[in-house]
Amino acid sequence: MKITWLGHSAFRIETAKAKVLIDPFFTGNPAFDEATRQDAAAGLTHILLTHGHGDHVGDTIALAGETGATVLANADLAAWLGSKGVKKLEMGNTGGTIHFDGFSTTFVNALHSSAQITEDGVSHSLGNANGLVLHFEDEPTLYHMGDTDIFSDMALIQELHQPEIGLVPIGDRFTMGGAVAALACQRFFTFGTVLPCHYGSFPIIDQTADTFVAAMDGAKGKVAVPKVGGSVTV
């Protein structure tokens, strides 16, 4: 499995059967290099969304139209995307699992909000925020936490899914900060590989992973901190 960080919370996951984007926030993302957009979308089969904020839905509508990729989102967000012209949609909700060729995705809890402000200035709720657990055939299980704080039921996510790879928000202000994120990883999970995210993009969130990396010092498992556009193979 090849995992490429595309800035903020956006990742590309590549396996033998699937080319997946999670939270593809490209346009307007200060950390994203537009020169890499073509590579990020190459062969795309699926787009998975953790919640409805613009910095996570990102370029989903355009990418779905360009590539024909299937989009997975919670039911409210999926319905909204359908109203915007997205054709291939799979909707679910917290606790549910959607099966695809080569992998499945389970919606789990996240402590966050989920909405879009329309052109008339009205905020519309787009369902609950989620984390996503991806179970692959013959590949490690991956957990994208979405935007969240620490919560004790992370222990149940570990018990039910035993994820080996964690994609963990660390930027503070809108999610847990680096020290709390490290506590979550060490108290509740047995990750073999952890990649931090949701930092280094907007100036009001943490610009580096230093706090997280320092707090993870001595923890079991590997902390990988690729540059934007950099990849890790596990």
From TrEMBL:
Belongs to the UPF0173 family. InterPro entries: Metallo-B-lactamas, RibonucZ/Hydroxyglut_hydro, UPF0173, UPF0173_UPF0282_UlaG_hydrolase. The keyword Hydrolase applies. Signal peptide: none annotated. The keyword Hydrolase applies. One of its GO terms (molecular function) is hydrolase activity. Residues 7-198 form the Metallo-beta-lactamase domain. It comes from Mycoplana dimorpha. Keywords: Hydrolase. This is UPF0173 metal-dependent hydrolase C7449_101571.
